[in-house]
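Standup notes
- HV: blocked on the assembly model, inputs below
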Amino acid sequence: MVESTDKVERVVREALKIACPDIGAVDGSTHLASELGLDSAQVMDMIMEIEDRLDISIPVATIAEARTLDDLCQSVRRVAGEA
Amino acid sequence: MTLLDKFAPLAELRGALAASGKVPSVATPMDAIHSATEGVIDGRTVLLAGTNNYLGLTFDPECRAAAIKAVDELGTGTTGSRMASGNYAGHRALEREFAEAFGWPAAIVFSTGYQANLGAISALAGQGEFLMVDADSHASIHDACRLSMATTIRFRHNDPENLARRLERLGEEAKKTLVVVESLYSVLGDRAPLTELVEVTRQHGAMIIVDEAHSFGMYGPKGVGICAELGLLDRVDFVVGTFSKSLGGVGGFCVSRHPDFELLRLGSRPYIFTASPPPPVIAAARAALSRLLRGDDLRAQLWKNIGRFNAAVTRLGYRTGSKDPGPVTALVFGERQDAIAHWQGLLDAGIYTNLMVPPATPAGLNIVRISLSAAHTDAQISRMIEAFEQLAARLRPAA
């Protein structure tokens, strides 16, 4: 499966918005836990939303390494077979 | 910046969960325990309604006598692993008794319930294999996944269709997958759609392990659990459970309908690299299992208590975490302060319950959790209901 870079980033941002509705502007280097204050349950919700929208399964270990939005997009691209 | 600085936010949360000058809701100091339903907190005797002591067996005369006899005859500990000097006759007998209870050929006893999940799951699925785990699983399951070398994928809580989609994506690899679910989830007290989850698992050639920590003892023929109640014991592959709820002790077990499961003890690190349970723990567990299997009287009292209590809190307008009343009743509040006020109000009325808040709860819910027991008398249940009636009159019950 191949997803375009733009589509992955758009889906990740949409999922972030769903997991954390009050969120403001976020750039790629924003730290998901320390800057956005996402707890593990919110991150999990976000990942499931991404999985459903892109029809992929993201291993838990893949997510654990993602600290920033850019990291997460990169991980998702890897799972989606693009990167 | 030191290694300890990262704990500061947890200290803040702990502070927020206790009203100033009051008894803390986290790690509440228990000064004494008088019975399965009464203890002493902050110098006052309180009714215990948050101890998971579902059948009230912690003070059962047979269990206590068995533990005392074992200490006298075999000492206080085994000081060795089951793989070394800790493989006593009692440990082996308890495993046979668990297997017989399920009508299955294999059972392994672990030193705690946490280690039962760690030991079974991490050994069953290894490198190049998959763990498909319900997103709301207990920490012991998530930790087991971290210990395993398998690839872990989460599926949406209690959603067989979501599980099916993930298994489909694996294609042929689905046959190398262990699906991990609980029969009754401990925070909200909600039941899994086990029949559907088992069906999806089998359709894809995977195996399934069901954690019955909060249902073993209360459901199904002889109390063996929800898998037995639903007639799934010919399709479920493994059941894991604990001694520290309905059995009133400490320890864990995993049983299987596959005879080769017994070999797992040769490759399960949490089984091998720890001391086996002490003789009094095993002796009490054997007595408790025997009592549980002939415990229809206990289950009748427990379900009567569950019926009365749930009818009352529903009448008072409380929102519960599950549509199916069970041994765990989770009262759900929209605001953390409402949950804290209820927990404190109950303790002030002499009733101990559990307060649970995010991030330890699913969906950011604030919960006061009540666990009922067969040892609760009709009068004690009436006391709990009266306390809730008074609280509902002065606090907001609804979320």
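- HV (later): unblocked. Chain A touches chain B at residues 39-42, 44, 47-48, 51-52, 55-61 (CB under 8 Å). Residues 61 and 75 of chain A are 10 Å apart (CA to CA).
- Next: hand off to the docking folks.
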